[in-house]
Amino acid sequence: MNNREVKRRIASVKETVKITRAMYAISVAKMVKAKSALPLTEQFYENALSVMEKAASSSAPYFAERGSKTAFIVIGSDKGLCGDYNQRVFEKAQEVMRQVSEKFLFTVGSVTKEMLAKVGLEADVEFLHSAEDPSPESAYSMAEDLLNLYEEGLLDRVLLVYSKATANHSEPVVKPLLPYIAEQNLPAPQEGITESAVRKSVYEYLAGALYNGLWSSSLSEHIARVKAMMQATKNGEAMIADLTAKYNKIRQESITRSLQDAACSDQGL
Fold first, then answer.
1. Domain 3-20+227-262 fold
2. Is 3 left (phi over 0), alpha (psi -120 to 50) or beta?
3. Which fold has domain 35-181+191-224?
4. Is 189's pLDDT higher than 60?
5. Domain ranges (residues) in the chain
6. How far is CA 92 from CA 160, 172, 174, 188, in A?
7. Which end of the chain is more exposed for a tag (fewer CB within 10 A), N or C?
8. Separation CA 133–CA 122 (nearest Å)
9. Residue 211 and residue 46: Cα distance in Å, rounded?
10. Which pTM was predicted?
């Protein structure tokens, strides 16, 4: 590699480092936003869960095991460059889906959807534009679709596969959503609570769980991307330092040769 090639390589790496630094800054801002949103979504979910438990009864179809038709809602990202975030979600989803014969795949995020498709797990439904910037509207829309399919008997179980974020770490987990199995025996139907009220509480519970899962996954994605871009920037800077040293060495050797050639010329050699 001559000096011109090294110089061209240095310029190329510097441009890449500019991009990784910019992506790092953007990801930090999005990570901060997700960190501030997550506690609110957790409170939303806890409130909905509390109401749902009060409305729960052994006679409602949402609280008892039935068949084996299982829906998997898998939350990944729409973009790459976030380390092993999508790979870990993919592996967790593949692990749990392998254990079920009758399965239906609902995906959030195009990257994980494509990864699952490569191993023959095609998405039955794709919830578009929900991973990048989660909204209550998208969570309620997803909850309504799932609840309708469950009530029609097309689904017997609903499982959520997402990344649970804690501080600066995340872990893919599987959260059962339907049927809701309480730790204690459910009470008999309470007087004054209608079927529509029970359904409404389950609907809110599903939306709360999905909304929390979306924001937890979003935070996990940005944590992973911040780490990936930080490492990429460090690697780029180290490469620039190595290339600069090589450039200076080649340049010095070239100057030394030129001086030697001039000295030999002066001596008539």
1. Helix Hairpins (1.10.287)
2. alpha
3. Pyruvate Kinase; Chain: A, domain 1 (3.40.1380)
4. no
5. 3-20+227-262, 35-181+191-224
6. 11, 7, 8, 37
7. C
8. 24
9. 12
10. 0.87
Q: Are 202 and 180 in contact (CB under 8 A)?
A: yes
**Cβ distance 172 to 77 under 8 Å?**
no
pLDDT digits (tens, 9 = 90+) for 199-219: 999 999 999 999 999 999 999
- What single-letter amino acid sits at 171? E
- Write out the two tokens for 86: 């999508």
Q: Are 75 and 109 in contact (CB under 8 A)?
A: yes
pLDDT for residue 262 is more than 70: no
Which tokens hold the place of 231?
């490492």
The residue assigned the tokens 């599903």 is 206
Residue 130 backbone phi and psi in degrees, to 5: -110, -20
Between the alpha carbon of residue 124 and those of residues 93, 229, 243, the distances in Å are 15, 33, 49
